[in-house]
UniProtKB/TrEMBL annotation:
Originating species: Alexandrium catenella
Name the UniProt record assigns to this protein: Uncharacterized protein
Taxonomy, superkingdom: Eukaryota
Length: 144
């Protein structure tokens, strides 16, 4: 087999950050599915922070700290950046050592067209057991 597809999940940015409280990121467990069948979950942490434009940068920096934090901003008042970082995956199905895993992230228009605006694949990581990961960490620290 070339690939074992582990599932797909769709979420809007608004769904990911709807419970954001100031500078505290939201955390969600999203259900993966393949052909309508549930097959696991993925944990996502998300945080919305609007970027100040040059003309309102001074006022943004001078605002009160409680107003100058990562939080859902007003529409059409700032630019935005979507950063997706995948730092690890756990509880994947057993696989031979050396199996490679990656995550594909696709940004789609929410309108009727569902046009793909961007798609990126993460760096491919090799499969390791938790014990092997810990041994590798100790080696990097010079403790083994």
């Amino acid at each position: 087999k070339k690939t074992d597809f582990l599932g797909r999940v769709e979420a809007t940015i608004a769904d990911l950050v709807d419970a954001q409280d100031g500078a505290v990121p939201c955390e969600r467990w999203l259900q993966l599915a393949v052909d309508g069948a549930q097959c696991g979950e993925v944990r996502v942490q998300a945080q919305w922070r609007p970027l100040a434009t040059v003309k309102n940068l001074s006022s943004a920096m001078a605002s009160h700290p409680e107003e100058n934090c990562w939080a859902l901003g007003k529409n059409n008042t700032a630019s935005w950046v979507l950063f997706v970082g995948v730092y690890g995956a756990t509880m994947l199905p057993p696989a031979p050592e050396g199996t490679r895993h990656w995550v594909s992230v696709c940004l789609e228009d929410e309108g009727e067209s569902k046009q793909t605006l961007a798609q990126v694949d993460t760096v491919i990581g090799r499969s390791r057991t938790v014990v092997q990961k810990d041994i590798d960490s100790l080696c990097r620290l010079g403790l083994s």
